[in-house]
Fold F-box domain-containing protein.
Amino acid sequence: MAALPATNAFTISASQAAGSTGDKGLMRTESLRNPNITVQFAKEVIDFSSQYGTETSISYTARNLAGGANIFPSYGDFTQACVFRTYGPWWKKAPSARKPFERTPKTFLSDDYIEITFATKVYPIKLDIYETYNPGAIVRILACDMNVGTDVDTGLSVCQWVTLWQGRPEESTRQSRIFSPPLKQCPFPTELLRLELCHDLAPYYTDLDCVQLHGTTEPVTNFSCVRLHSEQFYVKDGDGVNVMSTMTGALKDLSLEPNPKEFNTENQYVSKEIKQITREKDTGHEEIKNIKQTNNLDSVTYMQSDNGFFDLLPGEVIQIILSNMDLPGLCSMAQTCRLLRRHCCDSLQYIELNLQPHWTQVTDAVMYSLLKRCSHLQRLNLSWCKNPQLTINGVDAFMQFCGRELTCLYISTCKFVNNDCLMSVAQYCPNLRELDIDSCLQVDSTGFSQLKNLLQLQRLNLYRTYIDTMSLTAIIRSCPNLQHLNLGSCTCLHFMDDIADELGKNCRVMNGVYLVPDRFHDSKRKLKSLELWRSRSISHEGLLRIYTNCRDLEEIDLGWCTELKSRTSCFVELTQNCTKLKKLFLTANRTVCDEDLLAIAKHCKDMEQLDILGTREVSAFAAQRILENCKKLIMFDVSFCSGIDFPMMETWKKDFPHCEIKKSYQN
């Protein structure tokens, strides 16, 4: 990554900005009509959810987003870019895909995020995001105020997040661009911004070059005029195009805690609606009384209440109606009347609880307010919840009361996840089957060792954690019914062959007989997916332990496992033993050859996703055999395969339209 330019933060006047040209010939729009506008590139990346690169490299890593433009206006796949781990819908279609949570708001689309800081606090009025490969994935931009103060009751620091822009992903264009969506006015100066991305429409990995923030040190009095002036298109030599998105979010944040006063304050129009509904309700009561009198039904007494006509419906019908509402809607509905409050707080409405879309609002107080409603909670998603007011104390109390029936817990990229948190999970959640602690960096061997007590685990995501060999070995020995295991980018696993040996011993199936302890006998207990992305210590001997014992594997990611060599026949034997494979990633293994591809074509008829990026020894003939024999193949990545050219790829696209063939490029 290039060093931060000396002009990273500077102040320009309106006359200087008009028609001025920056680095690499970028044509600037006329700057805002204000003599004190600060324009600055991101200083540092402080947090992110995933990255294509590794912690010890500068290629394809999240921190490449800091500093000035290194790639723009060029378009293509460059190592200097910020690149995330996934793209498109493929990971959501793989055997390892997770069941989506119910009640997830349709407006929540984010798959990844990255947080960046700037040298100078400003009131944001314009943001330029340099997208240099497969643009269109940005769906949300937020600003943070870390200096709100301290909560007088808890003594915890308070931070405030505000959404500056929200939209939907766009179809990608094959042009680099500067994306400058219209921003809402920010009520505070900020030095911390967050970008959220949705990869569903991305045909390949999205590359971000840099982010440039325009802002003022003082509040802008006429923000609407300033914003209109900042929303101009500009072009660099016909290559980089600034395309303005018209999709803006209009949702207001709702508190998850009942607060009628606040609710009525934010929604003053409600009072008028309530009066109208009350008049209609009174009219309805009069009509019912008239009907009773006409039909001499004096023996039947109609009890007038403040519940509208909901009290005439069976409770089951009300429950079904409420089950279609998201969590903020449910909390708001609980404030309307006693009847609906009783139904909205019913524990049957909280079998699944997805708090990830509301990560800015989740605090200890929220967890306490939800505690009594979640006595039958089975699935909980707290991923990304990083509010300083959400602590291990609140989570521990929640787990103690609601963890008994919990089978699924996602807490990826959470600041509160530490050794004490995992100890609490292991103690209070004995029936847990799925655990995601992706990118939780405050856990060491003391915390990981607690997971061996979760005997029912079937899915475990340890991506980008500091799990060590000894702790993981203990977990595998205690949890032989693991079906999905993610060990991608685990830099502290230095003896992966030992891990593979344990997997072969404890999670194996041969000839339909499951070789696990008697207490764990279950026809579903078998390893189905294994991610070893960037596991540089696994060799052909470790892979042999896996494919000779875990023959029901449907997915394995061996991308960037550089110690695996084709000359050992490990890839051929993998396909011969694991014939149920649906997803196989051999990314950046320079030794993969035609013999390996022909073995895949012969033995893996169910193959759906295959990645052979950077395999220079393969020919177009062998690749075509895969397309011909693997009828279910829907994604085939042949990027940087020197034996496969673009004309051949275009021919394949016509001959095999059911399969999306990927071939990345530069310029």
In short: Residues 1-32, 231-281, 287-304, 510-525 have pLDDT under 50 and may be disordered. Residues 269-294 form the longest helix (26 residues).
